[in-house]
């Protein structure tokens, strides 16, 4: 039976057991900034392959909208200006 057919409680139970087992065995993945960055990029590429760039664009817009809601348009404007300055520095 695959994870998609399990209840959320059963998924947690299986994942917990697996996590404990790999830590006990010493084979658990310990992310560094670099390995986390690489894993994120790999996951992003897999998502693009599966769902297309339009899907990624929608996710980015959703995240941007959430930041605007939380921090305000002025914040976004300021970081946009700062990013533009940094990009055009010699």
List keywords for this structure.
single chain; 90 residues; mainly alpha; 4 helices; 79% helix
SSE class: mainly alpha
Strand content bin: under 5%
Distance between the termini: 58 Å
Mean pLDDT comes to 87
Contiguous runs where pLDDT drops below 50 for at least 5 residues: none
Report Rg.
20 Å
Helix content: over 70%
What's the total helix number? 4
Number of strands: 0
Could you give the order of the helices and strands?
A: HHHH
Shape: elongated
3D architecture notes:
By secondary structure, this protein is an all-alpha fold. It has a domain of 36 residues. Helix content is 79%, strand content 0%. The protein is built from 4 helices and no strands. Helix 2 packs across helix 3 and helix 3 packs across helix 4. The longest helix is centred in the middle third of the chain and has 19 residues. The relative contact order is 0.05.
Secondary structure layout:
Layout: H1 8-25, H2 33-51, H3 53-71, H4 73-87
Helix pairs in contact: 2-3, 3-4
Quick summary of this structure?
With 90 residues, this protein is an all-alpha fold. The chain has 4 helices and no strands.
